[in-house]
User: What shape does this take?
Amino acid sequence: MNQVPLVSQPMALQKAKKKKNNYLKHSPLLIMMIPALLYLLINSYLPMFGIVIAFKDINFAKGILQSDWVGMANFEYLFKTSDAYIITRNTILYNLLFIVLGTILSFSAAIMLNEIKNKVLLRTFQAVITMPHLISWVIISYLVYAFLSPDTGFMNHTVMPMLGNEDGISWYTEAKHWPVILSLVDFWKTVGYGSIVYFAALLGINEEYYEAARIDGASRMKQIFNITIPLIAPVIIMLMLLRLGRIFYSDFGLFYQVPLNSGALFNATATIDTYVFNGLLGSGDMGMSAAAGVYQSIVGFILVITVNYFVRRKNKDSALF
Amino acid sequence: MKNESPVLTWFSFITLLLFSIACIMPFILLISASLTDQSSIIVDGYSFVPNVFSTSAYEFLMSRGSDIFRAYGISVFITVFGTVVGVAITLLIAYPLSRKVTPHRSLILFIVFFSILFNGGLVPTYLIYAQFLEMKNTIWALIIPGLLTNGYYIMLMRVFLQGSMEPALIESAELDGANEYRILWHIVIPLSTSVMATIGLFTAIMYWNDWTNGMVYITDPSLFSIQNLLQRIMQDVQFIVTNLDSSNAGSALQEMPSDTVKMAIAVIGSLPILLAYPFFQKYFIKGIMFGAVKG
Assistant: This one.
């Protein structure tokens, strides 16, 4: 719509002047944002242009800009190997397992926390079960090593002999045990944290619903199934969907540090993130590593957008954007 | 009559108790292993109660403590510096983004937001920091990449500021002649101490626990943070375990921290955060809830 002719000339000028004044007056607000924007430029936006290196044959002698273009060759190599299949499969399957089982465990723990009416006890439980979330993956790898070390670990020295296996298991070279180990470690670290998130949602439920149900003679179990779960279900679904949007990203520390980056475990522990990292720091191919990174960024981006579209259709407030 | 079922309460109590024990147990094993005599470890392995009590691992570490103390110093420095700067620049962008009058607001909001959704990945980021900015083997490589972690905290703080600041309050300050910096200092900062403390806590934990930046950008051992020192010790031991056959391993292992010393270093590495936890656990849990409700 063209509104300019409707406004008399001096008024339009005045408006323009006011806008300019406004700009000047609020320019400190722009200046404040400079450090963060500079950071985003360096940390987020310049690397986006760096995606071109996935289409180049990196040669540090020639420099990155001068390296030869190779088109899709890096991607062709990547997808010709079985690596692409393994890392994609592992990333997605582990994430699905963590999302589904992790959510069930976290939510169950939240419901149990909600049954603890003693304040001191409640706070103690909350503090203890969130503690693992506070510990770095490096320390966790030591904790796991104390259990799994082939020569001195608790498992091989104490638990396996009790189960009748005197020789023990070479944990860091036998891939078949790692889906279970990684799941246990992930749940150990994240379930307590997740339960606090759901517990916060439970606190939002109006106590009157429970009171009314009690007067009608509903048992506490019935209340959980007929009040708590239906009311929290939308929150659970939203959080699961949002995690689904990040299914192409894995928790790097879990998959790299906990298995001690043992090559023998590649089949069970390699994810896109560990693959990219190993490509960068030596044992892999830099071009393929960059290609895997771009593959992750683009598919990951499409997934987030898609998931958000569905979340938004369901509930506008829960959507990311 | 109270609205609870004794069976359910007891079931919850026992399950949570078991879960809590499972959360603590690995630390008990770690501490016990670090306090066991080395020769006893070789016979019996790591166990939850020391078979033969010994503090020799800690004595050994104290006698060669300089690496550990320096790594501590680096961890403390990057944590304090990174947290202060990170929270400051988060506030400095979140506050203008919470004001409707800010020029180019929606564009900048998009810039922040898009950085959450899409990134170039590790390899291009590495090339920017290592090749373009030449930060390899400098302390900045441990600080700069983590400053904003991602745009999520900006969004969190912006939502908080929009919810807690009355536009009328700022307008009246403007009428009284206060400029933008005065408004920031005298109105916005006092109002947002709680959200700054929350984000600061989580940023500090992130810096203290970070090992990836050190692994990617630092090869000089004198710049190792405590996490990187721990990581390197574990890596080298693993290298010997997997790459040398047992006949050669014997001599190499003697120069390595022995099994108990390794556990003792891990205890020393996790001790500060575990000791501090009782004091900040309240805010930590509140912070998780805050993120859950707003995010």
User: Anything to note?
Assistant: The mean pLDDT of chain A is 87. The two ends of chain A are 28 Å apart (CA to CA).
